[in-house]
Design a protein that fits this description.
The structure is a homodimer.
Chain A lengths: L16 H9 L17 E3 L5 E7 L2 E2 L10 H18 L3 E11 L5 H18 L2 E9 L5 E11 L14 E5 L4 H10 L3 H5 L3 H12 L8 H7 E7 L3 H12 L2 E5 L7 H9 L4 H6 L5 E6 L4 H14 L6 E8 L4 E4 L17
Parallel strand pairs in A: 4-5, 9-12
Antiparallel strand pairs in A: 2-6, 3-6, 4-6, 7-10, 7-11, 8-10, 9-11
Helix pairs in contact in A: 2-3, 4-6, 7-11
Chain lengths: 347, 347
């Protein structure tokens, strides 16, 4: 680590990509020899023999995936967690990540220190190391482009397109909290309207800012899942993707969709908030299809694993896959439930 | 591939991330089974047994790394080539890449088709496949974030920080063409001032828009290099990085630095243009340190490989590494040559 520019004070603006990389990011790479302390052009990742490397890149940008005034540690956590959530859904063990940071203006030392602190916390929680970093300055929002590398035994990545008609559908945790947390950040007065207390509002905001990848499900998914994917753009849209990739349809009873207290209260006051639960996005829960023969074992083992997770969660059965080729939501009256929009699309 | 939105006509704006991915990007992934046709959350990369995976991410942005009105096929080529150039310097064989695209406005079909065409050309030239893709819309410049995966036999990545005093320094190709090509794009009248013809100007512009990763050097680097890195931010800055990582200094005779006809003419008219050659950036050539005992073999084998490359190039000896801890440039009079700036820094 260089200390030549430290005299500038704790809230000074950082100058030079190397200062950012060596002072704040290199310590996050210290545990992985193939990262070469972020002083080389590339990293050398040594795969475990007999394993595939599961890879994913999903950049996050200010005002699109997080709010500019979110705490920097939370921004860092989320940037890594949304990628690790994909690894979790594929039954992959997180190993390493690369990160390209882009700023319209050089960050302050205070911001970078908090951001690096959030990354340190997240990578320790997920069991991985930073192995490559790059920073640049360009107009537009602060952008964090992370690529994650995980591992599965060769050929054992749990896929999205291998669900079959008759499979039972499960989701982890509760849906809608992230989207409702974002709504509460934008319009705090909604808490009164929904009749929720400050602690419940904070829980929803935490779900938006600090999603918890369901890594505890790894072994259970590998043993029992027909197919799985993470929910990032909302159940309606993501389930549509699973069905399209698998050549199936699906029917979901919305009354069965697991909701936290905030979602129950929000829907009770504003039924339109069903949209946040079914199509709001930002859930980072896992959607799993399970063959009927395996449902009992899956449910028992997944719930046991969820209870032992860093953040305990349950698995909930929400519907079944069929051969209709379309996704249907049924209201509690058994009639088709029509969504206002089907999910988050960037275009 | 979906064809449901094709009725909109060839210059219509594209709507929907899935349309972009499935129509234009999925064909680039068709050759790699673990890409799952870009329909899954993640890709499964199967490493060759006994190899390390060499990884790098280096996003490029409009107006920073390319010009907004550059041909889309060239933008695509450059976005992949600048990353592959790093693999080439590490003696790694390119295998696969992931790409996240970000647009402030949805691209037209015409733009996407040309962009995908450039990618197809580049990935075929470099011997790799697209295995993961993501698109989103956000304010700011068009940004292409590529992560490349290459392979080397375990533990054999050529590093940056393993050069030693006494090593001889070489560079591939010629330096400054990319920076001068950019200068000519911005101020076409410079061609007259420098007295160069249209064909020479086009060559420099092509070097800026379509850098050629020196993949032909792979075996030679692995056999003979003490250290190597690619030149992206200019010789002065990147050589400083090699010296810092290796704990060495270096002396370079600027008269020995290989220059194409455009650089010779530009310097002759405007000696300040030495800055473009030594510190302009956008070279994407390889800087190599070679132990004195291996120089003869390296030079012979590297030049032989360069002659057989897709775009032939030579290796040129430009200086030596020493124990001074600093980088010195000597003019043709043998006196220290002082640069106006030491290289491209994003901050």
């Amino acid at each position: 680590m260089s200390s030549t520019t430290k005299g500038a004070g704790s809230d000074a603006v950082l100058h030079g990509e190397e200062a950012i990389i060596q002072e704040y990011l290199a310590p996050l790479a210290a545990g992985y020899p193939g990262a070469f302390g972020l002083t080389d052009d590339c990293a050398a990742f040594t795969p475990t023999p007999g394993h595939d490397v599961v890879v994913k890149t999903d950049p996050v940008a200010s005002s699109v995936h997080f709010l500019a005034d979110d705490p920097p540690a939370d921004i860092a956590w989320k940037a890594l967690a949304v990628n690790v959530s994909d690894l979790a859904a594929k039954a992959a063990a997180p190993q390493a990540y690369l990160m390209a940071l882009s700023f319209p203006e050089a960050p302050t030392r205070e911001w970078m220190a908090a951001f690096a602190g959030g990354l340190a916390e997240a990578q320790a929680a997920f069991g991985m190391h930073l192995i490559g970093g790059d920073t640049d300055r360009r107009p537009g929002p602060v952008t964090i482009s992370i690529t994650v590398l995980g591992e599965v035994p060769s050929g054992r990545m749990v896929q999205r397109g291998t669900a079959r008609p008759g499979d039972v559908l499960f989701v982890s945790g509760t849906l809608g909290d992230g989207a409702l947390g974002l709504a509460l950040l934008r319009r705090p007065e909604l808490a009164d309207r929904w009749g929720i207390d400050a602690a419940s509002a904070r829980t929803a905001v935490a779900k938006y800012r600090r999603p918890q990848p369901r890594l505890a499900l790894r072994d259970v998914l590998r043993s029992h899942a027909s197919a799985a994917m993470d929910l990032s753009d909302g159940l309606a849209k993501d389930l549509g993707r699973m069905c399209r990739a698998s050549g199936t349809g699906a029917t979901v009873s919305i009354g069965a969709v697991p909701r936290d207290a905030v979602a129950v209260a929000a829907i009770s006051a504003d039924p339109i908030r069903w949209n946040d639960v079914l199509a709001g996005g930002d859930d980072y829960e896992i959607l799993v299809a399970v063959n009927a023969d395996r449902v009992a074992a899956f449910e028992a083992e997944a719930n046991a694993a969820g209870r032992l997770g860093r953040e305990p969660f349950a698995m909930t059965r929400i519907g079944t896959l069929d051969a209709t080729g379309k996704v249907s939501f049924l209201g509690s009256d058994g009639k088709p439930f029509v969504l206002q929009r089907t999910g988050w699309d960037h275009f």
